Amino acid sequence: MFFKKRGALAPRFICKWLYYICSMNQKGKWISLVLLLVISCLVYFLLPYYSGIIAGYDQYIFYPFQTFRGLLLGHLPFSIGDVLYIAGGVWALVTVIKWVRYIIRFRAAKVLLANSVIRTIKTILFFYLLFITGWGANYYKPSLLQEWGLIHQIPPPQTEIEKAERKKKSLENLIAFNRILVDKLNEYAPGYHSLSLIETDHKAEAIYRTYTDSKVKHYGLKIKPGLFGYFMRRLGVEGYYNPFTGEGQIDAELPAFTMPFLICHEMAHQAGIASEEDANLMAYALGTTTPDSTFRYSAYLNIWLYANNRLYRRDSAKAKEFDSMLNKLTKAHIDTLDQISKKYQNDYARYSTQLYDNYLKMQDQKDGIRSYGNVVVSAWLLEQKRNKSEIGLIVVP
Length: 397
Prior knowledge:
Elements: H1 2-21, H2 27-46, H3 51-73, H4 80-104, H5 106-134, H6 144-147, H7 160-188, H8 197-211, E1 223-225, H9 229-235, E2 239-241, E3 248-250, H10 259-270, H11 276-287, H12 293-314, H13 316-324, H14 328-343, H15 347-362, H16 375-388
Parallel strand pairs: 1-3
Antiparallel strand pairs: 2-3
């Protein structure tokens, strides 16, 4: 009988609490909450359809803001963004503990719980808008394929014969690109030499200044070692960009031969390229434009890993054939990557990948995590354009 009465009282407590948080003396808090919610919804649902806003955003908001963040934080040897993430994690943990306490003491603490819930929702909405303002709106830019004139509108195949021909042509292109990449790896492997993270970062900055028209290439590009290196490896994360502080981080323990490509990738995010496919394409374009053998080798190796993996799913025998054609240094580097993958293979990495896949899809990236590998097609199209015409300064939209 006691439990029945207690159960009947619970809905009344909740109703009274909801009545309280909707009462007139909470009007100011509700107005600010609703305002933040409305603005967030307008941004989320309307931004993808107004490309003109993005052009103004680049010129008047993102580029000045990224330059300012680079001047303010770029000289620091550690990531302020990582420190802020730690602070955010502590805040979230303390908030959850407080909510548990408030729920246990619901009658006496319902006012405190209501205020805390409202503040938390407002904080989340505020940081979402800060994310969009500081960098997130770049997700809605036209792709590099469009900006660089690498694609043309091709009507979809209408018949089964056309589909088969398109599929056959796709496989032929993939095989041809694998052959090019293997030849390039064998060509540049003798000139490869390991660089430290600092050396690689300085060279990457110089490459951006020399070969691109990026508006932040003088002050907004700087990659730092992440404070969470061990956890990054456990989660399968090699590097990331902090949209709040404008800093790029990579795992300092990564093999040196991967760093030139990865640093150019993270700098692409700092330059205002949000799409993972486009950031990979920019890293490939830069790495294969500079005469530096180490950067060229790293670019060809990283793209070959994507290309050969894609070929393996369609023609494993051909993929193995290309693998056998590689030089000893590249084979040793691939073995190193395999050992790292096996060492840190765990469920957390799979959960992290799924979480990031969902995040990318929420940001209008329809292919999610697969967009990384789409660079195989993009890079092949870039090579075709290079064969037909000379490409000047690399455009960073």
